[in-house]
Design goal:
single chain; globular; alpha/beta; DHBP synthase; 10-stranded mixed β-sheet
């Protein structure tokens, strides 16, 4: 069975944050709260943990995987960002958006869209996530926690634990999250293209 941590959404307990990061660095996969829906993540370089997430979510290589970053500086290490794109990102991060960008060479090939060589990038406005990322000192490889044959994410961390306790290593209870995942915006080819309407307001990109 996995572990279950109750972490305060406004004042994350440093002891629990460190323990959570230890689990990630030991190859674990975690379920954690964000400013949209609950997500599932693992260490960027850990192939085995990545494959476990793919199996749990039943994802193939065409899925757009996401790197959850602390800030724009970290984001720019893993994505190719020109000046107009940087201004757009600065205006809408942190927030409930995932941006599709051309990936840099720092991104493992298994995470890239096989045809376009792109990656999803996200900077959440969530204190629990920011605390995790600061302690981890690198992005999380992440996907939304939408289980196979389900249309929406699970919002109750206790239900997540009951259903996934034998398939993940940690569930973080940061309080209820939205049932709505991020808004996904493709910034690769000049004019923004909204690929999924979610919690972030899509109007600025339409």
């Amino acid at each position: 069975m996995s572990q279950f941590f109750v972490i305060h959404p406004d004042n994350p307990q440093s002891r629990l944050i460190k323990q959570a990061v230890d689990i990630i660095q030991e190859g674990g996969i975690i379920v954690y709260p964000t400013d949209s829906a609950y997500a599932i993540g693992c260490q960027l370089a850990n192939k085995d943990a990545f494959l476990r997430i793919c199996q749990l979510r039943q994802l193939d290589e065409t899925h757009h995987f996401t790197l959850v970053c602390r800030n724009l500086s970290e984001l720019a290490t893993y994505a190719l960002v020109d000046n107009p794109t940087f201004r757009t990102l600065k205006a809408y991060t942190p927030g409930p958006y995932t941006f599709i960008l051309n990936a840099s060479k720092e991104v493992p090939k298994r995470l890239l869209n096989p045809k376009r060589k792109t990656i999803g990038i996200r900077v959440p406005d969530c204190k629990v996530v920011q605390a995790l990322l600061k302690e981890l000192d690198e992005p999380l490889m992440s996907v939304s926690l939408v289980l196979p044959q389900q249309e929406y994410p699970i919002i109750d961390p206790k239900e997540i634990y009951e259903r996934l306790g034998n398939r993940v290593d940690l569930v973080i209870d940061g309080g209820p999250c939205s049932v709505t995942p991020t808004t996904v915006v493709d910034l690769v080819e000049g004019a923004p293209k909204v690929l999924r309407i979610g919690k972030g307001d899509p109007m600025p990109f339409q």
